[in-house]
Amino acid sequence: MSILASQSAKRAILVLADGTVFRGTAIGAEGSAVGEVVFNTAMTGYQEILTDPSYTEQIVTLTYPHIGNTGTNSEDQESDQVWAKGLIIRDLAMKASNFRSEETLSGYLQRHNVVGIADIDTRRLTRILRENGAQNGCIMVGELDENKAQELAQKFPGLKGMDLAKEVCCENPYEWSGGSWQLGEGHTKPEQSQYHVVAYDYGCKHNILRLLADRNCKITVVPAQTSAEDVLALNPDGIFLSNGPGDPEPCDYAITAIKTLLDKDIPIFGICLGHQLLAIASGAQSMKMKFGHHGANHPVQDLKTKRVMITSQNHGFAVDEKQLPDNLEVTHVSLFDGTLQGIRRKDKPAFSFQGHPEASPGPHDASELFDHFIELMQAKA
Ligand SMILES: NC(=O)CC[C@H](N)C(=O)O
């Protein structure tokens, strides 16, 4: 191949639905990707972000400018595949240098057939998304056609109304054997298992299951559409509702099951999509946010203790704090914009958190929420 041909094979564009065009360099697979473009402000954790199933149908731009310097490895996966539709960055590190690195970011994206684009003015892009709201976009690699890319971005239906939890979850129930956070991959403490947690997989991140394993839980993971009756047949001490992609409102199967499970007074803990579903099952409503929360430095206040936690966040929908039923108490709020971050049922052993107490990436300030879940199971036992 001539130098010119190989150079042109490397060119890529990002076109937003509003027609804004960014020209850059391809760093991943060939082809094109269409999705909702969101910005994440975390300075680390690109591999965890890419493999978080909550990013299904989304293209992620990272505001941190220098990405790829620690490469990728098999331990930092938050699921078995890359779910983000595409990656947009400012600058790809020329060298991956870390004792845990097994593969470069570029090689990793290509192997997972995910489109990526570098050399983009991600500050300008982020300003557009902040000012006008998250918007659909298209990354195109190879044959570049700006009009076609804009048309594809405009045709993308958007995440409002998209029921994705049932698309990304496991096919069959399984027992978690992926290890614990403290002890590492492949290690669990089954002999010490005290509580049987049934975890609804709506697109669950592995670190949630690792943190439950750390706390002596035996975990059975079940698909998103598992009925409440099938979950009850497993005789759980507690029920976990996972994070996941898309809009919570159309997930009627989950909302119906959670309503039934709430009636049984079994401890329930929800994270992110699981939080939104618990709220809706309790009578609340969700709404689409302007550009959402995606980052690892969001201050959230615990209203009871007044303590401020720095948290990891990844959501584009939120529970509407203006339309809460009487059975819900607000436990946490975002100090960035005052939106609702945590709730507790006043009449049931059930609570949930909008951010990501499991981090990966991010700080572990909110990990005590896992301990609270254990306390609820203890109290019930
Ligand atoms: N991380 C999540 O669970 C995200 C929940 C939901 N898909 C949202 O964007 O708000």
From TrEMBL:
Entry keywords, A to Z: Amino-acid biosynthesis, Arginine biosynthesis, ATP-binding, Glutamine amidotransferase, Ligase, Nucleotide-binding, Pyrimidine biosynthesis
Keyword Chaperone included in the entry's annotation: no
Domain Carbamoyl-phosphate synthase small subunit N-terminal: 10-140
UniProt keyword Ligase present: yes
Residue ranges, annotated region (CPSase): 1-195
PROSITE patterns: GATASE_TYPE_1
Function: Small subunit of the glutamine-dependent carbamoyl phosphate synthetase (CPSase). CPSase catalyzes the formation of carbamoyl phosphate from the ammonia moiety of glutamine, carbonate, and phosphate donated by ATP, constituting the first step of 2 biosynthetic pathways, one leading to arginine and/or urea and the other to pyrimidine nucleotides. The small subunit (glutamine amidotransferase) binds and cleaves glutamine to supply the large subunit with the substrate ammonia.
Subunit organization: Composed of two chains; the small (or glutamine) chain promotes the hydrolysis of glutamine to ammonia, which is used by the large (or ammonia) chain to synthesize carbamoyl phosphate. Tetramer of heterodimers (alpha,beta)4.
Protein name: Carbamoyl phosphate synthase small chain
Organism of origin: Idiomarina ramblicola
